[in-house]
Amino acid sequence: MAEKKFYITTPIYYPSANFHIGHCYTTVIADAIARYKKQHGYDVYFLTGSDEHGLKIQKKALESGVTPQEYVDKIIKDAKDLWKSLKIDYDKFIRTTDDYHVQTVSKIFNKLYEQGDIYKGEYKGLYCTPCESFWTETQLIDGKCPDCLREVSEVKEEAYFFKLSKYQDRLVEYIESHPDFIQPTSRKNEMINNFIKPGLEDLCVSRTSFNWGIPVSFDTKHVVYVWIDALSNYISALGYLSEDDSLFKKFWPADLHIVGKEIVRFHTIIWPALLMALDLPLPKQIFGHGWLVINGGKISKSLGNYKDPRDYIKDYGVDAIRYYLLSEVPFGSDGTFSEELLITRYNTDLANTLGNLVNRTLSMLTKYFDGVIVNSAAETEFDTDLKNVVLKTNELVNNYMDKLEIPEALDSIFNIFRRCNKYIDETMPWQLAKEENKDKLKKVLYNLLEAIRIGAILLSPFLPDTATEILRQLNTSFKTISTISKFGELEEGISINDFKPIFMRVELKNE
Ligand code: MSP
Question: What is the CATH architecture of 339-484?
Fold first, then answer.
């Protein structure tokens, strides 16, 4: 049997001072997938990190009167706090300023140079002198620098190039013969038809116009430009070309690189070509997700259209944010973020469907049976359907997760909770209590508690705190995925723990 291992990565983030909810989107998705795989017995390695070199950082540090290293250190501390408050359970956080990464990148660059895949040439570009930045024709605004709107001039600088063009045919052949390599399929077609087939040019992989980067060891006026530096993180993090490469041997090739749509091109063209040049196997899948947009446009600091993600977490709780990010956006497409929508989804799904169900059920158990989990041999005509819905959900979730259809997976879990609420309406436990039909009442409450237990276990990769809290309130020791294939594992005779509503309704400001 193939070893159950799973290596998943997010992109490494630019340490911009303003991480927004869009950045949280990529990371929360990867976290939910990683947790799901762990829950199913995979040996998972989940990597995230930061992409810390380059002219932009160098300039920002200068403006703030600190060294680039001091500048990134501060932001990375904040980023790690943000991931912690979002319950991102990564196995490693790589920084491109980490020594081991710097060494590996240097070795990779030298290796490619020695084998003739990197050569020295001349880079021609449109340069803005005050901003010290190169721009492409398409980045210009009215022919001027997009940052300061001043004139740009065509300049040449000595640079090293990677022979990307050499790998064009192999790339097309690989992508076409591995249909799962680029997902969704629409992105695959875009890469082949719009970028690769029209012809790949060799890629400039060094710069002399700034020095906040990894020096080219044999020509130190050059620093390694972003492509080799950033993309190599996926293998340097595992110890590639280092003394201890056991993680690399175990986990490479990656099972899944999750990336935003604007960087699919780098991950499906430059990255595979670099790996081919290094004679390494290619990742199994690159999934390009869409963007979270606000009012149809980009989330942007200059537009002032977003709050710090930590404020949303403070106002609504971490699982409300995770729920929104995981359920609102069809994976692969763009989705909308708005606080109103967040509140609506929170109230409907979390406070009403789930929170109220758990609270009602535990309250009835307390009222009728002193909080002791009871059962009986009685039956109601609605039991079979409830059990069927509950027992088929695991398979549904697995099918959706195989296709990375996370909103659908989450919805099928919420279907358990919706079915439970309907079951309460159908069986009317308060009526059974009035009629003193204790046996039926016991059965109904047991079925509800067991359905809630199974639902909570399925929910745990997505909303870990909520799942943990429900299982704590139930006081059950059956918390793993191996305990949900049968309906009826929940222990009878034990007392539930103290409980309070998991989600309190939030009033819309203009309600
Ligand atoms: N540093 C590069 C990645 C190098 S990977 C070898 C980078 N960094 S980034 O900070 O700009 O973006 C990190 C991730 O956040 C990307 O996947 C990007 O798509 C994602 N997002 C940034 N804004 C986003 C939204 N508004 N919506 C969804 N994801 C977005 O790119």
Answer: Orthogonal Bundle (1.10)
**Does the Cβ of 51 fall within 6 Å of ligand 1?**
yes
What order do you get walking across the sheet with 5-13 strand by strand? Answer: 92-95, 43-50, 5-13, 256-260, 286-289, 182-183
Mutate to test the pocket of ligand 1, among 20, 26, 47 (most ligand atoms within 8 A of CB): 26
Of 410, 32, 30, 52, the C-alpha closest to 257 is 30
> Helix 68-85 to helix 55-64 angle, to the nearest 10 degrees?
100
**Of residues 346, 359, 418, the one with CA closest to residue 385:** 418
For 270-286, letters b (16+ CB in 10 Å) and e give: bbbbbbbbbeeebbebb
Please give the number of the atom of ligand 1 that sits closest to the Cα of 51: 1
| Crossing angle between the packed helical segments 383-402 and 406-427, to the nearest 10 degrees | 170
CB 229 less than 6 A from any atom of ligand 1: no
Instruction: Tell me the two tokens of residue 370.
Output: 């002193």
pTM to 2 decimals? 0.95
pLDDT tens-digit readout, 123-132: 888 988 777 6
| Distance between Cα 415 and ligand 1 center (Å) | 32
pLDDT tens for residues 457-475? 999 999 999 999 999 999 9
**Distance from C-alpha of 151 to C-alpha of 141, rounded to nearest angstrom:** 10
DSSP code for 378: -
